[in-house]
Amino acid sequence: MLAAAGVALFVVPTEFVLSSNPLIVPHLILGAFFLLTPIINHFRMLIAIRQHSHQVADAVASHQQRNVILRREKKVAFDMFIVAIVILISFAPALVVACVKSIETSSSLTSIYPYLFPWAVSASLMNSYVNPVIYFWRNKELRIAMKSTVSC
After folding, report:
1. What is the pLDDT of residues 86-118, one digit of tens each?
2. Shortest CA distance to 33 belongs to which of 3, 71, 64?
3. SS (H, E, C) 76-123
4. Helix, strand, coil share of the chain (percent; to 5)
5. What's the chain's Rg over C-alpha atoms?
6. CA dist 49 to 42, 76, 86, Å?
7. 109 and 142 Cβ atoms separated by less than 8 Å
8. Is the CB of residue 98 less than 8 Å from the CB of residue 11?
9. Helices 63-103, 127-138: inter-axial angle, 10-degree rounding
10. What whole-number distance in Å separates Cα of residue 38 and Cα of residue 44?
11. Exposure string (b/e) for 91-125, b if CB count within 10 Å is 16 or more?
12. Other CB atoms closer than 10 Å to residue 87's CB: what's the count?
């Protein structure tokens, strides 16, 4: 949801960069905020998990318990890494198209832009679909819960 707001506020207004729109700067700032917030939060969670793993390693007496906990935390960190990469990949086409449009004013790009821009924005909005699929694919407990709910 936050990512979709980033597209709406960041990518769409870049279409007006060449015009004399006075609201472009606040739109770009808000768009950058909404785009960077999920990525920064994922990396902050990764750092918190690493710190927690050190605390657990000090508190847990058994080597086997420590390995189980660390293995689980590494899996969570890797899942967050995958989600952050998917966020970057899904927003890249819209950002590239919008930046090229604002820089390049050639007639060939201007004629293609109305066709590329909706596809690029759609790719960025697909992030809202892909994230639950990633969580479902990577989390066995979630799959079991879904099977028990659907099988009634």
Report:
1. 988 888 888 888 777 776 666 666 677 778 888
2. 3
3. HHHHHHHHHHHHHHHHHHHHHHHHHHHHCCCHHHHHHHHHHHHHHHHH
4. 90, 0, 10
5. 21
6. 11, 8, 20
7. no
8. yes
9. 160
10. 10
11. bebbbebbeebeeeeeeeeeeebeebbeebbebbb
12. 22
The answer to whether the beta carbons of residues 24 and 17 sit under 8 Å apart is: yes
Read off the pTM: 0.56
> CA angle 103-106-108, nearest 5°?
125
Q: What is the distance between the terminal CA atoms of the chain, rounded to a whole angstrom?
A: 30
Residues in the chain: 152
The token duo for 75 is 């899996």
Token pair for 73: 């935390």
Q: What is the pLDDT of residues 5-17, one digit of tens each?
A: 444 444 544 444 4
